[in-house]
Amino acid sequence: MPRASATPFLNPLPRVRLLATGGTIAGAQLTTTSRGYQAGAFSIDNLITALPQLADIAQLEIEQVARLGSQDMDETVWLNLAARADTALASAEVAGVVVTHGTDTMEETAYFLNLILASDQPVVLVGAMRPATAISADGPMNLYNALAVATHPDSRGRGVLVVANDEIHFAREVVKTNTTQLGTFKSPNRGLAGLVNAGRLHFFGAPPRRHTSGSAFSLDGLTALPRVHILYAHAGLTRELIDAAVQTGAAGLVIAGVGDGNMSSAALAACADAVSRGVAVVRSSRTGGGVVERNIEIDDDRHGFIAADELNPQKARVLLMLALTRTRDPRELQEIFFTY
Ligand SMILES: NC(=O)CC[C@H](N)C(=O)O
Hints:
This protein is of the alpha/beta class. The chain folds into two domains: 5-214, Rossmann fold; 228-339, Rossmann fold, CATH 3.40.50. The chain has helices at residues 44-49, 75-90, 106-116, 139-151, 240-247, 265-276, 300-303, 313-323, 330-339; strands at residues 5-6, 15-22, 28-29, 37-38, 59-68, 94-100, 123-126, 160-164, 167-170, 175-176, 185-186, 194-197, 200-203, 228-232, 252-257, 280-285, 306-307. The strands form four sheets. The chain has a nine-stranded mixed β-sheet, sandwiched between helices. Strands 14-15-16-17 form a four-stranded parallel β-sheet, sandwiched between helices. It has a two-stranded antiparallel ribbon with strand order 3-4. Strand 12 and strand 13 (200-203) form a beta hairpin. Helix 3 (106-116) packs parallel to helix 8 (313-323) and helix 5 packs parallel to helix 6 (265-276).
């Protein structure tokens, strides 16, 4: 196993642009044991002041991009955040970018940035499960570790990373799997990118698929994203919601299918009708892991469907929105899903 390596001591210290968006890492409770709290109530400056150790490893340049619970993250904030990260990465003085973010939709933002940013410099998303005012808040160590990862030369060229609970995850792989526990983040298909222990890190492998500087997607000319909905399959799924999505102008649908991306006969017929009206339909899985392959239980070739491959529904939605800015051809869309 490779030896864990601490961030090399550099003089002057590397500069890191910290883009703050809110979340529990900046959340405040009424008392340190109360269960309710307000995500994003703290400004990032409060967090930094409470953690003087950060100044030992980097010079921080702080930008408050948003102050929200990540349940309110949307395409507009993504495009703004990506533009700010892009500007930071274009500066020769900036070694890396850290984004503080709520954990609920962190995996979606991370994957979006992984597809759209064109730099090999480290970009690290970090959050917390306990508010900043809680007993044993996890945010300070997560932030310290994120900064260590963002300044380490080994982190270059690995795509966007997520740091939490002493673990490093690839943006494409990471999933929030538990409502409250500190170990909520998992990478069920391909495993961890690496570990980070009090700022010392080691990586286990290279990121899967194309990302960042190897991605064909870019921010150039991108001002909005096509409308894509996720519909959750279940026993007894009927067709009304699929039809409603098509009638209200969806460009694409992701079905969070049962098993290997399956759905009821009624839903299948509605999805086939959607394709005939030019709507892209991606079959993903609600199971939380594994692969959705083409033409196993459902004839994708005949219906014009796209198999999500390894992407969960929320990441399939991110990729489909970007892919639809390039093509509406189901065969080309399928190639994109096999590439990213
Ligand atoms: N642990 C968290 O960060 C969740 C808080 C909030 N719902 C958010 O995603 O921002």
